[in-house]
Amino acid sequence: MSQIPMFRESFQHASKELLHWFPGHMAKGLRVMQQKLRSMDGIIEVHDARIPFSGRNPLFEDRLASVRPHLFVLNKIDLADMSRKDEIVSRLKYEGVTEVILTNLKNGQDKASKEIVSKMIDMIKSGTRFDRAMTSPSSYNLLVIGIPNVGKSSLINRIRTVHTKREGKAAPVGAEPGVTRAVQQGILVNIKPKVYILDSPGIAQPRVNNVVEGMKLALCNIIHDHKVGIDIVADFLLFYMNKAADFRYVKAFNLDNPTDKIMEVLVKIAVDQNIYHKVKPVTGGPWMEKLNLEQAAYFMVRKFRSGELGKICLDSDQLPTHTTATLSRQRARSR
């Protein structure tokens, strides 16, 4: 690998849709959830481990999580770099989170997801609102909250399968954000004691703090690709990996050297993967084959979302400054 070039210090792309993405069903869902709180015993907040800080919705803490026992689940740890797990958990607790569980729902033997029900019951019983005279309640009601596409419905289905031995999907699951459109009825996930979980629509922040934070949400597929532009999402991925001195993309996309130019990457991907499409010349004449750079951008972003570029924590820049040892590991990782 030749000398590493200079890279951009900031990411300039922005759009009103990126900074103000708050679909109507989500605003309504938040109001309904607030009304449901009276009958809820506890709250499970699910979040993407690749963005443990950036994606959190401040409305949860203000209106929901502060009034009931609150368990914070960092999901998708199979895709996230958790080498600084202790620092991540420490910051979350500093921000008010009391209990954190890490889950990988792609692993059918994931032990953490099996502990959620018992952990939640223990938190409820030790809470100040628990009725001490009622030592063995006949049932518990839990509310699952989280921004879109972080695995809320998948978690409910896993818990249900583990504790009731029922297969299938009781809660709708999809790869696109916003699949759970309304606050649903309770789903029975445990028999003794009976535990019901209420699924909820993902609620994104009504306003992200800055462009980089919004792009992190887009890269993790929390904001629809078409709201931002898949080419911009791909460009942000390149920008972020360069800034983190993470050059694993060079090998993944068969490049000669790191680059700060997204067009170079997309053209290389399109050529190597034979990604073309037919276009009609404006001046007339026969159809022509051209590189399909939009599909190349999708190919690039999918590599990140599937974990094929390696485990990445997009919020590592919000943790304390890296030590010399950490930087050395980053440089070694790029070779």
From TrEMBL:
Residues 30-206 form the CP-type G domain. It is a peripheral membrane protein. Plays a role in the regulation of the mitochondrial ribosome assembly and of translational activity. Displays mitochondrial GTPase activity. This is Mitochondrial GTPase 1. It is found in: Mitochondrion inner membrane. Keywords: GTP-binding, Membrane, Mitochondrion, Mitochondrion inner membrane, Nucleotide-binding, Transit peptide. Signal peptide: none annotated. Belongs to the TRAFAC class YlqF/YawG GTPase family. MTG1 subfamily. GO terms for biological process: mitochondrial translation. It comes from Ramazzottius varieornatus (Water bear). Pfam families: MMR_HSR1. GO terms for cellular component: mitochondrial inner membrane. One of its GO terms (molecular function) is GTPase activity. GTP binds at N75, K76, I77, D78, N149, V150, G151, K152, S153, S154, G202.
